[in-house]
Amino acid sequence: MVASHVFDDRHVGAPGIAHGGAVATVLDDLLGFLLYLTGQPAVTRSLTIEYLSPVLLGVQYELAGKAMETKGRKRFVEAEVADPQQRIVARATALFVAVEVAHFDQAHSAEEGRAHSFKAGSRAGLQPLGDGTMLLQARYKRPGHLDVCAGQHGSVSHYYDI
Question: What's the pTM?
Answer without folding.
Answer: 0.69
